[in-house]
Amino acid sequence: MSLKENIDISRLPNHIAIIMDGNGRWAKEKGEDRLYGHLHGVESVRNIVEGAAEIGIKYLTLYAFSTENWDRPKNEVSGLMELLVDTIKNEVPTLNKNNIKLHVIGDTDMLPDAAKHELTEAIKETSKNTGLNLIMALSYSSRWEITEAAKQIATDAKKGSLVVDDIDQDTIKQYLTTKSFPDPELMIRTSGEFRISNFLLYQLAYAEFYFTNTLWPDFRKENLFEAILDYQSRERRFGKTGEQVKNKDQAG
Ligand code: IPE
Ligand code: IPE
Ligand code: MG
Fold first, then answer.
1. Which DSSP symbol is given to 182?
2. Total count of domains within the chain
3. Which domain holds residue 77?
4. pLDDT in tens, 80-92
5. Is 21 a catalytic residue?
6. 37 Cα to the center of ligand 2, angstroms
C-alpha cells in the first residue's frame, strides 16, 4: 500500500503549516548559488500544494519569507522578490484549475510594489475558489503580528469599541492575521533545524511538530504524506491524561 492509501482521511489535520527551510544548503551541496536553491524550492511548493489539495487538506500555510530574512544579502533578497513576482503571476491559472484560494499573511507593506501588485491580483482572481486555502507567510514574523495586534487592541479599548474585561483568548485570535483560519494541528520544518523561527507562536500552542532532515527542494508529496501518517500515530492530550483521552467516547 502506498503512503497515501495509509492515511486515514477522516482524521486529516485541517491545517498544516510548513517552514520551508534548506534551500541555501541544497544549492551549496551542488556548488551552486543560493538562488538556485530557491528556484528549486518553488518546484517543491507546487508539488506540496498539489499533494495537500489531492488528499483534501483545507488550510496550508507556507512560511516563505520572514521579517528577519530582509537582513540577508541584497542580491538574495531581490532575487527572492523577483522569484515571488514571477511565481505568483505564473501560478494563478493552476490555482484556479485546482480550486485553490490564495491568502497572504505578513507585513506586506515591506514588499516591492510589483510583488504587492501581483499578490493583490492573485488574491482577487482566486477569491471565489472553495477548495484548499493556501496561506503564504511573506515578510511575516509572529512577534510583528502580536505587536500589531496589541497596538490595535489598545486603540480599540481606548476608543471604547472593545471592553477590557471582555478580552479573552478568542478576542486575541480576532486581532491576528490568521483570524479567519483554524490553528494548525501539524507544523512541519524541513532541513534538520529544530526551531520555529518566529512562526505562528500563538497559533501553534497545541500543534504537533514534525521535523525532517530533508532539505526543502527535495521535499515532495510522499514526504508530506509521511508527516501526516506520523501525526495520525500521535495521541493529542491537550493537558488531559492519556486515560481521559482514550475513554473520551465512553466518559463524554
Ligand atoms: C529557506 O531556505 C528559504 C527562505 C528562508 C527564504 P534558506 O534560504 O533558509 O536555506 P538555508 O537554511 O540557508 O539552507
Ligand atoms: C525561517 O527560515 C524562515 C523561512 C523558512 C521563510 P530561516 O532559514 O530564515 O530561519 P533561521 O534563521 O535559520 O532560524
Ligand atoms: Mg534557513
1. P
2. 1
3. 11-141+183-235
4. 999 999 999 999 9
5. yes
6. 14
Buried b (16+ CB within 10 A) or exposed e, 164-190: eeeeeeeeebebbbbeebebbbbbbbb
CATH number at residue 127: 3.40.1180.10
Cα gap 225→48, rounded to integer Å: 10
Which DSSP symbol is given to 180? T
Buried b (16+ CB within 10 A) or exposed e, 66-76: bbebeeeeeee
Which ligand minimizes its atom distance to the CA of 63? 2
- What would the pLDDT profile of 119-158 be if each residue is shown by its tens digit? 999 999 999 999 999 999 999 999 999 999 999 999 999 9
Instruction: Please report whether residue 174 resides in a domain.
Output: no
Expressed in angstroms and rounded, the spacing between residue 216 Cα and the centre of ligand 3 is 10
Per DSSP, the three-state class of 211 is strand
86: in domain:
yes
Q: Is the distance from CB of 101 to CB of 134 less than 8 angstroms? A: yes
User: Where do the DSSP E strands lie in the chain?
Assistant: 15-19, 59-66, 101-105, 133-140, 186-189, 208-211
Among 21, 191, 193, 194, which is best to mutate for testing ligand 2, by the most ligand atoms less than 8 A from CB? 21
For ligand 2, atom 11, the nearest C-alpha belongs to 197
| The model's pTM | 0.97
